[in-house]
Design goal:
heterodimer; A: 314 residues; alpha+beta; 2,3-Dihydroxybiphenyl 1,2-Dioxygenase, domain 1; ten-stranded mixed sheet; eight-stranded mixed sheet; 5 helices; B: 111 residues; mainly beta; Rieske Iron-sulfur Protein; three-stranded antiparallel sheet; 9 strands; 0% helix; globular
Chain lengths: 314, 111
């Protein structure tokens, strides 16, 4: 099944205005936004859809009241849509919408939608690094960073959900939808990659009590670690609250920086994730601070060694 | 020794305001004003124990302004008691911060 990854995440929120302001400050572009909600897009058209919590067009909420109301998967072709519909119709209701999309719920009750992907093909350079011993990636006289350089989320990378039964969650996505487990953090959960992408994960689960079922975070890919650092620094300067990072995860190798949000979950900038194919053998390690990251930093306001030149006095 | 933080009237009724961190610590405190009363807690969600709760400076309340919300995972707390009513910190409560409103309308940090 050629499922590529999340096209969109749909949220039903209490405060549309605050969430809209947040997502724009994060770097997403508002499309068709009014007081009832709208769409907030990364550069490739993937993104977040906001609606009011009580909006009747939304799928039913989880019993926990979590604000995540639907995960929308982009697939490559009609054949995949048909295969997903046939597979899920074996044991649950599958609705085919007028626009061709199909909707169902997973085994934990998360509402899913599958559609021909809306993502636009990006043609942008990644971060270019000059390193001794390797050919220069930036040409002579090309600078690597400037204060107001673009640092926009490029594409919706992944979503992480709290579930009470990791084995059940993993089995559904692996056995029914063809996802592959790339790695496992024991006591926590599996990193899952659908067949239509090489990204280390587009989906991850964390085991929690049932009353926490919902979304832990979602992440957008940036063009590289410099864009991630710049975007995160700008977000903090605008008054938003860092939760974890910046740092670099071990599994997936992706740089990370997580922020609190009014969407009831964390929101992450990530960059430079590993790519895998079916030859990859999953690793497994117990979850710990050591296992979760190669290194971790914390933001501070700009500072520089000060004082006058030696001998100049004060 | 009480330390002056602000005038009570610097905070609109029903709004929240953060202070600190104090004395080289890492944790802020925040107050929610309800009429002439305040409710003060450390800015540390009891789910993990020490993580900040606002999603933006001073943004500690839900849209209706009737609950404290942690912007980590959406846990909701009763303003008057700090008790978690919904979500990740169920069974736990916010830790009260030693901030008081004085008789002459000032907010002070005690201790």
């Amino acid at each position: 099944m050629n499922i590529i990854g999340p096209d969109a995440l749909v949220f039903g929120v209490d405060d549309v205005e605050a969430c809209a302001k947040y997502l724009v400050a994060f770097g997403l572009d508002p499309v068709g936004v009014d007081e009832k909600g709208g769409r907030f897009e990364a550069l490739d058209g993937t993104g977040i859809v906001l609606r009011r919590r009580g909006d009747p067009s939304l799928p039913a909420p989880l019993e926990t009241g979590a604000m995540l109301r639907q995960i929308v998967y982009g697939v490559a072709d009609e054949a995949t849509l048909g295969a997903v519909a046939d597979e899920l119709a074996r044991d649950r209701q599958v609705q085919r919408r007028a626009d061709g999309g199909i909707e169902a719920t997973d085994d934990h009750g998360f509402a899913l939608r599958f559609q021909r992907t809306i993502r636009r093909k990006l043609d942008l350079p990644g971060e270019r690094v000059n390193a001794p011993g390797a050919p220069a990636q930036r040409g002579v006289n090309q600078i690597g960073v400037w204060q107001d350089m673009p640092a926009k989320p490029r594409t919706l990378s992944h979503v992480v959900c709290f579930v009470p039964d990791i084995a059940q969650a993993e089995a559904f996505y692996v056995n029914r939808l063809g996802f592959k487990v790339t790695d496992r953090l024991g006591n926590s959960g599996p990193f899952l990659r659908p067949a239509g992408t090489n990204d280390h994960h587009t989906l991850f689960f964390i085991q929690t009590p049932v009353y926490m079922k919902g979304c832990e975070h979602f992440a957008f890919h940036m063009g590289g670690p410099t864009e991630l650092m710049l975007a995160g620094s700008r977000f903090i300067k605008a008054g938003y609250q860092s939760f974890w990072g910046p740092g670099r995860h071990k599994f997936g190798s992706n740089w990370f920086w997580y922020f609190n949000s009014p969407l009831g979950c964390h929101v992450e900038y990530d960059a430079d994730m590993d790519q895998h194919d079916d030859e990859w053998a999953p690793r497994e390690t117990p979850m710990s601070a050591e296992a979760a990251q190669a290194f971790l930093f914390e933001h501070r306001e700009k500072w520089a060694p000060g004082g006058p030149p030696p001998g100049m006095g004060r | 020794m009480a330390r002056f933080l602000c005038k009570l009237d610097d905070i609109a009724d029903g709004e929240a305001r953060a202070f600190g961190p104090f004395d080289g610590g890492r944790t802020k405190a925040f107050v929610v004003r309800k009429g002439e009363h305040i409710h003060a807690y450390w800015d540390a969600c009891p789910h993990y124990g020490d993580t900040p709760m606002a999603w933006r400076t001073d943004a500690y309340l839900n849209a209706a302004g009737d609950r404290i919300v942690c912007a980590s995972h959406g846990a909701e707390f009763e303003i008057e008691t700090g008790r978690c009513l919904l979500g990740a910190a169920l069974g736990k409560s916010l830790r009260p911060a030693p901030i008081e409103a004085t008789a002459n309308g000032e907010l002070v940090l005690k201790g």
